[in-house]
Amino acid sequence: MSDPTRKIIHVDMDAFFASVEQRDAPELKGKPVAVGGSSGRGVVAAASYEARVFGVRSAMPSVTALRRCPDLIFVRPRFEVYKAVSQQIRAIFLDYTDLVEPLSLDEAYLDVTANRLGLPSATATAEEIRARILDTTGLTASAGISYNKFLAKLASDMNKPNGQFVIPVKAGPRVVASLPVGKFHGIGPKTVERMEALGIRTGADLAAWSLPDLQRTFGKAGSWYHGIARAEDHRPVRPNRVRKSSGSETTFHHDLTDPEAIEERVLAMADDVWDWVEKTGQHGRTVTVKAKYADFRIVTRSRTLSAPVADRATLHATARSLIATLYPLRMGLRLVGVTMAGFGAGEGPSGQLDLL
After folding, report:
1. Is the pLDDT of residue 40 over 90?
2. pLDDT class for 347, splitting at 50, 70, 90?
């Protein structure tokens, strides 16, 4: 079982990028706002809650977002501002614990088992942290509190925006059993489709499967699914967690042979990677393009730059040149992917807290 004595908080800023823009431009308050490019191959990096009502979501093509919300206001991202605000928030976290694991600029895990400030509970700690964030930055945050990371992150989505939710030890398995598997972070849309085809629609359905059956069906991920279906997660909060790479790939419905069509998919994968880079502020030096031929043979081409990739255009140019080394193709491609790596190259308890 997960350690029931641990007290984990997951803090997630509410529509972070868009909320910063609405804070700094009062005329945008109460209006549907998207951070990102509005033309060409632009994508939505973040959407305000007013825009989300229309179905606008991050990573959505801008043209699709505009179709859903014709009054959508696009704002160019200001990542230097988002990073500065994120640093303010990080400083608040560190007043409560040294065990802070950032996931991106706008969310982090905190292990507050060691009650540094003598607060009555982890819930009270989360409330105070959220109040300080609002006072310091003018922005709201949501929080989830539980005894492991999986449940804390699950809980932070249950009372958004500007709220918090607690999943205590006895309630963990019951909460997980009642939720659809699509709500579980770490289970993506494709896996959800596969699970539903197998009759796995809720956490209870997932828990009914044995560990050997899950491992046979889902490979290495089967052990993780077996654990979370029982509200178990042994991962510690790692304050110095280093991301080694970030990548994106796609499998085509039909094998592609046209270089222009292949390049279009490669650039789309590069955009996915760059969106992550902008969100986290981490820049790598090594770019890798992966391709899988129609006969399932996989090839990769990599290039390590003299300095971290500084902008989207550089990533596009590097990925484009790498895929070009495969031409002329000996057969069609069924998959392409782009990965960035080389991040950072050149760059005692005073008492136990109760959850409640």
Report:
1. no
2. very low
Q: In the chain, what is the straight-line distance between the N-terminal and C-terminal CA atoms, in Å? A: 20
| Residues in contact with 70: Cβ distance below 8 Å, sequence separation at least 6, in sequence order | none
How far is 152 from 163, CA to CA, in rounded Å? 13
- Strand pairing class (33-36; 73-75): parallel
Residue ranges matching CATH 1.10.150.20 in the chain: 174-228
Q: What is the pLDDT of residues 296-311, one digit of tens each?
A: 899 999 999 988 898 8
Of 221, 236, 14, the closest CA to residue 147 belongs to 236
Annotation marks residue 107 as catalytic: yes
pLDDT value at residue 243:
62
Tell me the pTM. 0.72
pLDDT at 346: 43
**Domain boundaries for CATH 3.30.1490.100 within the chain:** 245-341
CB count within 10 Å of CB 197 equals 8
Which fold does the domain 245-341 belong to in CATH?
Answer: Dna Ligase; domain 1 (3.30.1490)
* Over residues 210-237, mean pLDDT: 95
Q: Which residues are annotated as a binding site?
A: 12, 106
Q: Which CATH class is domain 174-228?
A: mainly alpha
Out of 107, 128, 196, 232, the active site residue is 107
pLDDT at 352 > cutoff 80? no
Annotated binding site for Mg(2+): 12, 106
Fold of the domain built from segment(s) 1-167? Alpha-Beta Plaits (3.30.70)
**Segment among 78-87, 237-246, 254-263 with least mean pLDDT:** 237-246
CA 107 distance to own-chain centroid: 9
